[in-house]
Amino acid sequence: MANGNTIGKNLPWLQLHNMENNPKVLGIITARGGSKGIPRKNIKPLCGRPMICYMIDATLNSKLLTRCVVSTDDDEIAEIAREAGAEVPFKRPAELAQDDTRDMPVLQHAINWIKDNDGQEFDAIMMIHPTSPLCLGEDIDACIEKMIETDADSVMSMVEVTDFNIKKLKAIRDGQIESLFAEEGREPIPRTAGPKVYKRNAALYLTKTPLIMSGDMIGERSFAHIMPLERSVDVNTTIDFDIAELQLEKLKTKTPVS
């Protein structure tokens, strides 16, 4: 296994690892208890199961994750996660579970706890959001494979924004619409006229560990794992929750997603 001084700088992973000797990847499911948009959303019943259970299923179905833990400050979330088969080896400190807490210190806390208590170190860290219940184990493995193949510093799950052209963006000043891009001129630009654009779908963030420990989740070489729209639901609002439930019901009945 490569040490932290070589990863991402001197030797590409392709020389250090192959699919028979995978890099060590720690998955961290981040699930605090104090969500505001949908109270207790991480364990809100979704098609009869707490929402976090779907992402736990994905990690259990992954073939390439070395280990996966849940980072939570909430005893009920921890209990439900354990019952679903997840590992919850520590309780996240309350100061790392506030409304304004960023992801980086949460990840660093988990990395340091596992190193100090279990003596384990990992080549890369995958932050996994429980609010993406349609993500699959194959998506997790595809991100890891992409990192191995490309020597990426990071791999992010993304989705194509299908009904959008960046040049259609507007500003509103004093109630008046103003174009941000002169190209639109006097006639609206068709949404299909520009290049394809993508956004992070907030499901999976895979980054080499030394970058995480230095406070960088992106690095210089960031690659994309493109997920389909129907599996890219990120539950932040009640509307998102309803869409996720509808999609899961369609999958149960094997109804094609339109």
Architecture overview:
- The structure is a single chain.
- The protein is α/β, with parallel strands linked by helices.
- Residues 1-20 have low confidence and may be disordered.
- Helices cover 28% and strands 20% of the residues.
- The chain has a six-stranded mixed sheet, sandwiched between helices. Strands 2-3 form a two-stranded antiparallel sheet.
Write the layout of secondary structure elements.
Elements: H1 13-16, E1 25-30, E2 45-46, E3 49-50, H2 52-61, E4 67-71, H3 75-83, H4 103-118, E5 124-128, H5 137-150, E6 154-160, E7 170-173, E8 176-179, E9 198-208, H6 209-213, E10 222-226, H7 238-252
Helix pairs in contact: 2-5
Identify the notable features of this structure and list them briefly.
28% helix, 7 helices, 20% strand, 10 strands, 6-stranded mixed β-sheet, 258 residues, disordered N terminus, Spore Coat Polysaccharide Biosynthesis Protein SpsA, Chain A, 2 domains, alpha/beta
